[in-house]
Design brief:
Blueprint lengths: L2 E7 L4 H14 L7 E7 L5 H6 L2 E9 L2 E2 L1 H15 L6 E7 L5 H14 L2 E2 L4 E3 L5 H19 L1
Parallel strand pairs: 1-2, 1-3, 3-5, 5-6, 5-7
Antiparallel strand pairs: 3-4
Length: about 150
């Protein structure tokens, strides 16, 4: 039986899109078997999709030092249904911010800790245009979280 990795993203800029593409490429690497990758914009992901997923990748720009309103909306809509049902599920995060990402990192740490999710990869934080090494880190993030679902 395959597992589902849900990528919940807010991708308003070319830099965020480049990061998203790299995360998706890593998560869908042909060497990773038995993992279906579902991708949903943060404003349209449903609580049912979040509940049904076996693992998560979260991507957002950092706006004014915080996660995007779109990603916050996704969690506001699904938090209570997820609260007692998704503990221990693996996740990873990628952030794009031009300055001061600490508030966004703190917010996601608090949300995911409250849900009891298990971080399986280091958060990828990129400022400005993603460099080749940033794109590689995003690819590795996608592959790592997807691979965590293979076990």
């Amino acid at each position: 039986m395959s597992k589902t990795l849900l990528i919940i993203h807010h991708t308003p800029s070319p830099h965020c899109h480049e990061m998203f593409d790299a995360v998706l490429a890593g998560a869908t690497d042909p060497d990773i078997e038995g993992v279906d990758v579902l991708r949903r914009p943060a404003l349209t992901v449903s609580p049912a999709e979040m509940l049904a997923a076996d693992g998560y990748l979260l991507g957002t720009p950092v706006n004014l030092g915080y996660i995007s309103g779109a990603l916050k909306h996704a969690f506001d809509s699904a938090y209570y249904p997820l609260l007692d049902a998704t503990g221990g599920r693996p996740f990873g995060v990628y952030l794009h911010g031009n300055e001061g990402t600490e508030g966004a990192e703190r917010a996601l740490d608090g949300i995911t800790a409250g849900l009891g999710w298990e971080r399986v990869a280091e958060t990828v934080v990129v400022s400005g245009k993603p460099a080749k090494t940033d794109v590689e880190r995003c690819w590795n993030l996608g592959a790592t979280v997807a691979a965590a679902l293979m076990a």
